[in-house]
Write a structure and sequence with these properties.
It is a single chain. This protein is mainly α. It folds into two domains: 104 residues, no CATH class; 75 residues, no CATH class. The chain contains ten helices and no strands.
């Protein structure tokens, strides 16, 4: 009987170490996870933060804290702090929280993008003025991107005799769409790679 209790305690203490093995599971599978519930909820909280859903992230992490062993809670709270800083677009706090986790902080470019995101899409609960400013900034970015695409289309077409303004705008739009698609694709791959490395470090630390 004492041996059974010891095994159970070891499983509880190492529950967050299961993060790495649960990382590739779907949200539905994580929601139904019972053996490593704290780890599953921590992953769901991190995923919600990556969608900038601070409310869901906070809920999942609170559930993870409730089911975690006391020895794991300090690390879990730090994970929660980093995730909420990301979800609420607070780059300086994100950098500090990630550093305290013993991980490499986001690059200056990533922090700059998060700052831009905080301007374009302010966190929930922001004032109407901040939201209006975000829409205007987003509109300005779209216009500038289309103008750049238009200029590139004109430039590319010059050796072939040039194209009309309407055609140039069409091809400029396609250039912008392709560029955004490529950025999203490679950004997602980089995010998954960083997420895998983060999970590996957390599992090793647990």
């Amino acid at each position: 009987m004492p041996k059974q209790r010891q095994i159970k305690m070891q499983q509880q203490v190492g529950s967050l170490a299961a993060i790495q093995q649960l990382e590739n599971r779907s949200d539905e599978q994580l929601l139904s996870e019972s053996k490593h519930r704290a780890a599953a909820r921590a992953i769901l909280g991190a995923r919600a933060a990556e969608r900038y859903d601070a409310k869901a992230a906070r809920t999942y992490f609170n559930e993870a804290l409730a089911g975690a062993h006391p020895q794991e809670r300090p690390a879990l709270r730090q994970m929660m702090k980093a995730s909420l800083a990301l979800a609420e677009r607070r780059p300086d706090e994100l950098r500090d929280a990630v550093t305290k986790l013993g991980q490499e902080p986001p690059s200056s470019r990533q922090l700059l993008m998060l700052r831009l995101m905080s301007l374009v899409a302010p966190p929930p609960g922001s004032s109407i003025l901040l939201r209006v400013r975000g829409w205007l900034l987003l509109l300005a970015i779209i216009v500038v991107a289309l103008l750049i695409g238009f200029g590139l289309a004109k430039l590319i077409a010059l050796p072939f005799g040039g194209v009309s303004t309407g055609v140039a705008f069409f091809y400029g739009f396609l250039i912008v769409v392709v560029a955004l698609g490529a950025l999203a694709f490679f950004g997602r791959r980089r995010q998954k790679r960083a997420q895998a490395e983060r999970s590996s470090r957390m599992a090793g630390g647990g």
